[in-house]
Amino acid sequence: MSIHKLEDKVAIITGGASGIGKATASLFADHGAHVVIADIQDELGQQVAASIGFKNCSYIHCDVADEEQVKAMVEWTVQNHGRLDIMFSNAGMIRATKATTNSDQNILDIDFVAFDRLFAVNVRGMAACVKHAARAMVEKKVRGSIICTASVCASSGGDQDVDYFMSKHSVLGLVRSASKQLGPYGIRVNSISPFVVATPLMCELMGREAEETEKIFEGLTKLKGVVVKEKHVADAVLFLASGDSEVVSGHDMVVDAGFLVK
């Protein structure tokens, strides 16, 4: 008999229409949660909700860069399901523009228009999701779990994309501070830091199929014989969302096949 680790829990997953968010939405539903997928990809989001089953999954449009949309998303969830137990703040972008010769974002010629757009999603949007999820949990006296998607880039530097690296460092600061501030309410806050995963977003950025993308990055990890996939990240998020991690808070869980090992 399978064990449902999230039985009767209500979870929001931002960026849930594809990639890591989609894989996590399906896994959460398999473990008994009702999942609210939030995204700006309406057609894909509806398709994912339908594939999981509308009994266990809903879709709502939300651009996390707009705090009012984030607030409305959380309020809709509480009104329709009575509470919010889990927030997986996963929506993000790698670059604010399509990959071009002018989008590398080297510190010497950084484009601050693109910088501001990326930070609006990756930092401001992440903070808005934590803020409004936490408010809903505090109001309903829910001992909830909030998980934010960071990256191995949050623990390293890069030759380009300085704005992306900065944004993911910011996620760790958010998680560490929010975990201290929300601990007295019994709310846990953690982050997940994956290595490169061949998500649709990453494949589009690189202009390659998933298998090609995986081969490019496979040789950079220390743990041979495996490739980090969406499923591996979703499994880690499930751990942080469930009672299995009831004493884990303020932690950044790295899922990188040993990439960051010195």
From TrEMBL:
Superkingdom classification of source: Eukaryota
Q: Which Pfam families match?
A: adh_short_C2
Family statement: Belongs to the short-chain dehydrogenases/reductases (SDR) family.
- Write down the PANTHER family for this protein, in alphabetical order: SHORT-CHAIN DEHYDROGENASE REDUCTASE, SHORT-CHAIN DEHYDROGENASE REDUCTASE 3B-LIKE
What is the protein's given name? Short-chain dehydrogenase reductase 5
Task: State the taxonomy lineage.
Answer: Eukaryota, Viridiplantae, Streptophyta, Embryophyta, Tracheophyta
